[in-house]
Amino acid sequence: MFEGIDLALVNWSRAQFALTAMYHWVFVPLTLGLAIIVAIMETLYVKTGNPEWKRITKFWMTLFGINFAIGIATGIILEFEFGTNWSNYSWFVGDIFGAPLAIEGILAFFMESTFIAIMFFGWNKVSKGFHLTATWLTAIGANLSALWILVANGWMQMPVGMVFNPEKARMEMVNFWDVLFSPMAVHKFLHTTSSSFVLAAIFVIGVSAWYILKGRDIVFARKSIVVAAIFGLLASGYTLVTGDSSAREIAHHQPMKFAAFEGLYNGSKGAGLVALGVISTTDNDPSNENLKDFKVKIEIPNVLSYMAFLNWDAFVPGVNDLIRGNEKEGVMSAMDKIVRGKKAIEKLTAYKEAKKGGLVSRADSLKTEIMSPDFQKNYFKYFGYGYISDPNTLVPSIPLSFYSFHIMVVLGLYFIVFFVLALLYTLKGKIHKKRTFLRFALWTIPLAYLASQSGWILAEAGRQPWVIQDLMPTMAAVTKISVGAVQVTFWLFAIIFTTLLIAEIKIILRQIKIGPKVEGGAK
Amino acid sequence: MFETLSLITLQQYWWLIVSLLGALFVFLTFVQGGETLLFTIAKNDTEKSLLINTLGRKWEFTFTTLVTFGGAFFASFPLFYATSFGGAYWVWFAILISFVIQAVSYEFRKKPNNLLGTKTYDVFLFLNGLLGPLLIGTAVGTFFNGAMFSLDDMNRVTWGTPFRGLEAVLTFHNLALGLAVLFLSRILGLLYFMNSVDNSAIYDRSKKHLLYNTIPFLVFFLYFLIALLFKDGFAYHPETGIVTIESYKYLHNILAMPVNTIMLLVGVVGVLWGIILSFLKGGTKGIWFAGGGTVLTVWALFILAGFNHTSFYPSVLDMQSSLTIENASSSHFTLIAMSYVSLFVPFVLGYIWYAWKSMNNKKISTDELEQEHHSY
Hints:
The complex is a heterodimer.
Chain A: H1 7-48, H2 51-85, H3 87-121, H4 128-157, E1 162-165, E2 170-173, H5 176-180, H6 183-214, H7 218-253, H8 255-262, E3 268-269, E4 273-285, E5 288-300, H9 303-309, E6 315-316, H10 319-324, H11 334-356, H12 360-371, H13 373-378, H14 398-427, H15 435-461, E7 466-468, E8 472-473, H16 474-477, H17 483-514
Antiparallel strand pairs in A: 1-2, 3-6, 4-5, 7-8
Chain B: H1 7-28, H2 30-36, H3 38-41, H4 45-56, H5 59-76, H6 78-87, H7 89-108, H8 118-145, E1 149-151, E2 157-159, H9 172-196, H10 200-230, E3 233-236, E4 243-246, H11 249-256, H12 258-281, H13 286-306, H14 332-342, H15 345-360, H16 366-371
């Protein structure tokens, strides 16, 4: 039934999706955060009537526009790629997954694209109040679109609100609210958007720092820093809180990802958190080259147990527990899950064959069996494991997960300190004297992008091999197409996106160099 | 309220919505049509700048409608999304790439230090204008003529040719629809220029080119329509779902659905009236007649393709794999949930109309562009 899976095809399809998603994510966080920062700035203009705020708003709006365009360009590919390269996935879960994508279009994209035109071209055409509303609606539209796509992503990480329909061979939605308010989706939305606000705030502070270093547009830069630092500080605090709760969700629903990003091979009670560590290049376990010891690590005892289960002595399963099983702690082995998954697939195949052969009563009894709560709970729940032959392939890349998680967390903590300093120095009127800090601010911009990308690498690479947790591995989701075709589109996108990224960076750098315009002057 | 509706009613309701989005998209391709005319209608940089700026304030609507069309199709008929996008790989990527290069071109073209130069971005716009409507029209042609796919018992798609959808251009009936959509988008583009640009030279030239584009449009469109009435179609049995070839299927559909046929006729007359009115009497209202007519015509064609037990995406490789609104749709529950979402559509259309009115109450002029902070 699942014969002839071409691993090269799976890997190239994954590479193409990763390429598109990562390029898309270069532009999106700035769009999400800068939209709100610009709206705050314009609110200050409308409230105070001070034209300086209008000038500030228009400058950041220009950079927003350049970044927005390329975000859209990469986004359209991403949406259709579910169909083009993951068509089996699209059918298997389209009944659930398609809905948030459609709602995103109807409720969010139209709001964004309608009001962005007023935001850019309506200064002299509509009233001040209407213009401000349009700017806020653009920001809300952008963040609403993030909500729906993250609901979709959250569902892939933790499928809820659905039931399997053997006749159609697909998952079907039975509870919309469970999908929308799934804790995984809610945490993902809050964490992703707040971290995007952080990135945008850092961008604004970094660019403003450059002006101060150059000794130009000082008032503009200081005002921009104050807005961005307050916004960034609030957002970064919230990112920390939502990051913490996201980790707990992962510990409960994706224990393998949790073990991987902590480099926890053998589970224990009162497990320690590896605050910092370097993974060795030598194998820990000859049967799985992915398992490597730490060369160096700083571990804080019991913290991991608390982080995962709010209990200092709780048992946290490690990679080995999840693969080999741990009867004492009630952890099922991967092999056991694979056997159950294969049984679920066999039953489905038998049902399909009975149906095809016109054996109505046999088909009906198989269907009843498949749909019984006992079969669903004990077998169908592990459906995706049925595709797996080697349990070791259930372990995601540990170095990739470990490093991306730790880079994200360390940088996230640094950003909080960064915002506090930026705010203090500016409010005390000393920012122009803190040249080292200003240089740091400039270099913090790429770090913000690094942290943001790391978060997504952890979220997506960390849940391998699953495209839908426990139900569908990537190899079963891919479109049957020649690997050459995917290679061609991969390179095509790599060339197009890289060219456009270079163009964008060049344009933005030039616009920064040109700086904010004198109000009333042409562009 | 939607809970009481039967599955087939909801499937029809969603086919109507997806078709309406498709129809609105074709109207909004006046942006693409306009992009192919930049080098024809504008004789200098100032004129080109006027054209690009008037299109540039609307391109996102077209783009968003395309994305929403894709999303709505995914949510309501996921088997089509999986089959067509996964199957006709090259066609869809060619279409998408033409929209990718469009998305940056307005914003980047006049910005200093833009790497590729204004001319390249203008060529990107031209390519989007040419390939977008042509390929989408051709792809929609396969709704009537079929495509080369088969589905296994788990509904996984296998495509019958290595060209992955590009072979659709070899069927002249598909290509005729593609060319008709292309010339229609150009007509709509010209009418939009006449409506929104305050420049008499552009107005006169647009009027003159209306005729040049209407003739090929009529040739291709009438060929498509007449051939459609005489061709065989893929019908399915309402109870068994078995697909068979039916002679004159679309003619039968025309006769079986008189309201739809009236809508089709009103639509075609609307398009022609918009063109004739603008050509003979001038004025700025042609776009609304032709645009409204386009929406009705395309909507009616989609209904013709999917209603009255017709397969909307037939397979010429394995007839029983053909997609119908009944076998390709989402579950009853999802269609109900999405139907509640559809109640927002009039609200969305309302604010789009309001925003459009606020922005277009005065024609775009060179003076305005000079004063504008943000221009393309």
